[in-house]
Design brief:
This protein is α+β, with helices and mostly antiparallel strands. The protein has one domain: Aminopeptidase. The protein contains 5 helices and 6 strands. Strands 1-2-3-4-6-5 form a 6-stranded mixed β-sheet. β3, α4 and β4 form a beta-alpha-beta unit. α1 packs across α3. The longest helix has 15 residues. The radius of gyration is 15 Å and the shape is globular.
């Protein structure tokens, strides 16, 4: 990913949230998401990505960005240096099911292995069966850890998944 890719990544991220999380995250929160605000946030994150975070994009035959993934060291407390985390993986909603997500995940696993990680972890919304099935098909298993985030006053639960590399 380059800095020039940030607007396309933000568009995919915002539409991805609004599509995948409809009915899970409060609509008021989803309606408040904007590509413009996300571009500012992504640019800040991208600048920090030089500190151990890797951003990977997928482009179509015309060079248009159609997917994005982000990974780095697992953010949990007291974790092994060999534990990586998939922070995000989004595909342009109209292209879900076309194999872009699997390709991005393979690139993430390859990068994670090159970075010295032997285990990958990720968090997925409990009420998102499509994403859970995607990761389970890729060899991830729920490990029993759970957490919740607050979106406009509504607690939304997540499950942690793991996969050995």
């Amino acid at each position: 990913m380059t800095k020039a890719d940030v607007p396309a990544v933000s568009a995919i991220r915002v539409t991805g949230w609004q599509t995948a999380y409809a009915g899970i995250v409060p609509q008021s929160y989803l309606d408040g998401l904007t590509v413009e605000a996300d571009v500012q946030q992504r640019r800040r994150h991208f600048e920090r990505s030089k500190e151990g975070t890797t951003n990977v994009v997928a482009a179509d035959a015309h060079g248009r960005i159609v997917g994005w993934a982000c990974l780095g060291r697992f953010r949990g407390n007291g974790t092994s240096r060999a534990m990586g985390e998939l922070y995000a993986l989004y595909v342009q909603p109209s292209l879900i099911g076309s194999g872009i997500g699997r390709t991005l995940l393979a690139a993430v696993h390859s990068q994670a292995h090159a970075d010295g990680f032997s285990l990958m972890l990720l968090w997925v919304l409990t009420d998102n069966p499509r994403a859970r099935h995607f990761y389970e098909r890729a060899g991830y298993i729920a490990d029993g850890a759970a957490q919740a985030d607050d979106y406009d006053g509504v607690s939304v639960s997540e499950l942690r998944y793991r996969r050995a590399l």
